[in-house]
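Example 9 (inverse folding). The structure is encoded as follows.
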């Protein structure tokens, strides 16, 4: 009987300990983590890759003038502060769940994010301050970019 009471007590403790985990509120800190492990800064934050993963707060997610050129034309990592500027948190949720873009943006990864992750990401982007300037406009195939670009070409097979 004493054993049973101890087991029950232990079980109840485990239950109460789990509650805060499920009730975790979306936060700026969680959003920063999502953006880091989601790889968003790799493309959307200038200087990030070159500095081994340092985030310059004045550049964070503000887009990049380095284009990605491929069969789709030339695309530029967007200034995400401008993207979310007119959106409510709920609107961002719908936007992220249905987003489709040109390459090499991994838009499909956003569809797998949980509501907690997307709400946190939104709060993190909103916390970054003044949106600043937009990234260069998309260029159609054949148009020559005015800023540096990376070529995403299909592999050449030896004959
Ligand atoms: C490999 C580089 C790369 C990575 C990694 C990347 N993006 Fe992008 N992203 C781009 C490019 C390039 C575009 C522009 C695509 C276009 O012009 O169609 C873009 C576009 C977007 C857009 C559309 C913006 C708009 O205003 O329509 C959103 C939102 C976005 N990215 C969010 C993210 C998030 C969040 C992450 C991290 C989970 C991420 N991206 C990771 C390159 C990247």
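The amino acid assigned to each position is listed next.
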């Amino acid at each position: 009987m004493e054993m049973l009471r101890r087991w029950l007590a232990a079980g109840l403790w485990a239950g109460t300990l789990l509650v805060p985990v499920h009730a975790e509120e979306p936060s700026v800190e969680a959003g920063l983590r999502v953006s880091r492990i989601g790889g968003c800064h790799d493309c959307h934050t200038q200087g990030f890759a070159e500095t081994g993963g340092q985030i310059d707060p004045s550049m964070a997610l503000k887009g990049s003038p380095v284009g990605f050129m491929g069969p789709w034309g030339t695309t530029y990592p967007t200034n995400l502060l401008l993207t979310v500027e007119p959106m409510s948190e709920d609107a961002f949720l719908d936007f992220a769940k249905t987003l489709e873009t040109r390459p090499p943006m991994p838009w499909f990864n956003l569809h797998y994010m949980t509501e907690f992750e997307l709400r946190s990401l939104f709060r993190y982007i909103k916390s970054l301050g003044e949106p600043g300037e937009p990234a260069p406009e998309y260029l159609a195939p054949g148009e020559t970019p005015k800023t540096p670009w990376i070529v995403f070409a299909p592999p050449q097979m030896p004959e």
